């Protein structure tokens, strides 16, 4: 078994995100067509792709990531017509959603067609589909001539990669190549909605706020507690939600408020916990916001602000790279602040809770 992070992929193509070199795209596509696995940027995070119906290639994706085989992959399309190849009984709303959100960070779960191998869907009768809003991803899918199955290009359980460097750190030469187009736009994964139930169910909050999707659907989307990053009982029924996720190597402790956030109480608790762990000789990291950063600077801790508490886009975007920065500084304990659970705040709280080993309510 290869060591984590060993080596580099045989091919690294540096490309312009808006106008990638067609030769790089062609080369990457031909590796995919011959059964290889290639990492590529999307507007959310980097993905690790295989052509969806080449089963051996799909298996390589699971192996490279050390991903459990029952955690299904999202299929990426470059045209709406590919949806009818992958799914059956497509409800009318899919057209509305696609018109408004594709290309973009919305993944739609539908009944799968017989063409989709069971390895892709973890044995489920449903398939997850999206059209990414990134020129490199779209051109790669077009050149490959088929939908591409692609989970995030990180080792299973680690924070998703927002740069090619993160992909190389995690997957090294376990993959055949990587298209490097710099940092991704959102830095957090797509929103996943299951349209096979009524009302539609949120399986994973992501970079498209649920409220925006509800406006188009004209109905409330059901938000199960696991989609908020809470609850143990539901874990077994929602694919991909039963494992600890998005985690740094350090132990992350999330300080939350019981109702509306009382930031004074949160800061006081984080200071108390920091002092305690520093006293034990631990290296402490504090994940905070611009509004609270100054409150921690007297402590001998690594302090990272994710941005203003009013700017969820920035907070979501900086979350994964910041968790990786703490790891590179060999921090033992990360103490994190909460945000309000609305819009992208729901996504941020889901990721923080799933990355955490402990939650403390103040
Ligand atoms: P990743 O591509 O690593 O961001 O993970 C893809 C996620 O999409 C999975 O963990 C599931 O939450 C969701 N997903 C993918 N395919 C399906 C499916 N067939 N049914 C339900 N959820 C899915
Ligand atoms: Mg993932």
UniProtKB/TrEMBL annotation:
InterPro entries: DHBP_synth_RibB-like_a/b_dom, Sua5-like_dom, Sua5/YwlC_C, Sua5_C, T(6)A37_SUA5, TC-AMP_synthase_SUA5
Binding positions for ATP per the UniProt entry: 67, 71, 152, 160, 204, 246
Record localization: Cytoplasm
Swiss-Prot/TrEMBL keywords: ATP-binding, Cytoplasm, Nucleotide-binding, Nucleotidyltransferase, Transferase, tRNA processing
GO-annotated cellular components: cytoplasm
UniProt keyword Nucleotidyltransferase present: yes
Gene Ontology MF, one: ATP binding
Keyword Metal-binding (UniProt): no
Catalyzed reaction equations: L-threonine + hydrogencarbonate + ATP = L-threonylcarbamoyladenylate + diphosphate + H2O
GO annotation, biological process: regulation of translational fidelity; tRNA processing
Annotated ranges, domain YrdC-like: 22-208
EC annotation from Swiss-Prot or TrEMBL: 2.7.7.87
Domain of life: Archaea
Binding site for L-threonine: 44, 76, 130, 150, 190
Pfam families associated with the record: Sua5_C (PF03481), Sua5_yciO_yrdC (PF01300)
Protein task: Required for the formation of a threonylcarbamoyl group on adenosine at position 37 (t(6)A37) in tRNAs that read codons beginning with adenine.
NCBIfam families attached to this UniProt entry: L-threonylcarbamoyladenylate synthase
PANTHER family xref list: SUA5, THREONYLCARBAMOYL-AMP SYNTHASE
Family recorded in the similarity comment: Belongs to the SUA5 family.
Protein name in the entry: Threonylcarbamoyl-AMP synthase
Source organism of this protein record: Thermofilum adornatum
């Amino acid at each position: 078994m290869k060591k984590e992070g060993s080596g580099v992929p045989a091919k690294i193509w540096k490309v312009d995100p808006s106008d990638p070199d067609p030769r790089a795209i062609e080369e990457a596509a031909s590796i995919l067509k011959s059964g290889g696995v290639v990492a590529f940027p999307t507007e959310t995070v980097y993905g690790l792709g295989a052509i969806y119906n080449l089963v051996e290639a799909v298996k390589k994706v699971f192996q490279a990531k050390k991903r459990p085989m029952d955690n299904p992959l999202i299929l990426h399309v470059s045209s709406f017509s590919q949806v009818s190849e992958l799914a059956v009984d497509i409800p009318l709303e899919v057209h509305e959603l696609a018109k408004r959100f594709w290309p973009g960070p919305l993944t739609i779960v539908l009944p799968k067609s017989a063409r989709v191998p069971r390895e892709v869907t973890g044995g489920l009768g449903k398939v997850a589909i999206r059209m990414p809003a990134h020129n490199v991803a779209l051109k790669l899918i077009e050149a490959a001539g088929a939908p591409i199955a692609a989970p995030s290009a990180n080792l299973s359980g680690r924070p998703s990669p927002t740069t090619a460097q993160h992909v190389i750190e995690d997957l090294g030469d376990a993959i055949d190549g990587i298209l490097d187009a710099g940092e991704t736009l959102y830095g957090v994964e797509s929103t996943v909605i299951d349209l096979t139930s009524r009302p539609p169910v949120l399986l994973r909050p992501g970079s498209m706020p649920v409220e925006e999707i509800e406006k188009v659907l004209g109905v409330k989307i059901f938000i199960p507690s696991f989609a908020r990053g809470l609850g143990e009982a539901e874990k077994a029924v929602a694919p991909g939600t039963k494992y600890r996720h998005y985690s740094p190597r350090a132990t992350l402790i999330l300080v939350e408020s019981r109702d509306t956030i009382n930031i004074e109480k949160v800061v006081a608790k984080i200071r108390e916990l920091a002092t305690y762990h520093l006293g034990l000789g631990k290296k402490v990291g504090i994940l905070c916001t611009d509004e609270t950063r100054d409150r921690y600077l007297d402590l001998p801790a690594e302090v990272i602000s994710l941005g203003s508490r009013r700017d969820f886009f920035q907070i979501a975007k900086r979350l994964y790279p910041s968790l990786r920065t703490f790891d590179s500084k060999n921090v033992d304990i990360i103490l994190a602040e909460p945000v309000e659970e609305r819009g992208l705040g729901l996504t941020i709280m889901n990721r923080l809770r799933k990355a955490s080993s402990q939650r403390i309510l103040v």
